[in-house]
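Weekly structure sync, notes
Attendees: PL (lead), two postdocs, one rotation student
Agenda item 3: pending single-chain targets
PL asked that the sequence for the first pending target be pasted directly into the notes so everyone works from the same version. It is reproduced below exactly as submitted, 112 residues in total.
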Amino acid sequence: MVTTVKDVAPVAMITRDGSRIIIDDALLGETIMQVATRHGVAGIAGECGGAMMCATCHIYDLSTAGTFSSPSDVEEEVLEGVTGERRANSRLSCQLVVGATASAIELQIPVE
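Predicted structure, written out during the meeting:
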C-alpha cells in the first residue's frame, strides 16, 4: 500500500522538558497513543494497549476545538486516576483518533 499525503497528518507534541517535536506521519485512523509509542515519545506509555484502563497515555489536548470527539463517560472516569495534573483539556491519547479533518493537532505531555 502506498501512503499519500492525504493519508497522514502532522502532530505537534510539547514534551515534558518543554521542547516541541513534530511527527509528520500520523496515519488517518491511528490513535495519538499509537503514533507516540511508534516514535518512542517519552511520557506516553500506553501500558494497557489502548483499552482505556491505565491512564498512562494521559495528554493535554491543545488542538482546535472539534479536532477530536468529546471524551466518553468512561474516559472521564479513567482520567480521575491520572498521576499528573488533571486539566479541562486532559485526554487519554488512546482515545484521540487522527481523522481526515485533522489539520492542527497539538498536544502536551503532562509533567509527572
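Discussion points:
- The chain has a mean pLDDT of 90.
- Residues 63 and 104 are 6 Å apart (CA to CA).
Action: rotation student to compare against the earlier draft before next sync.
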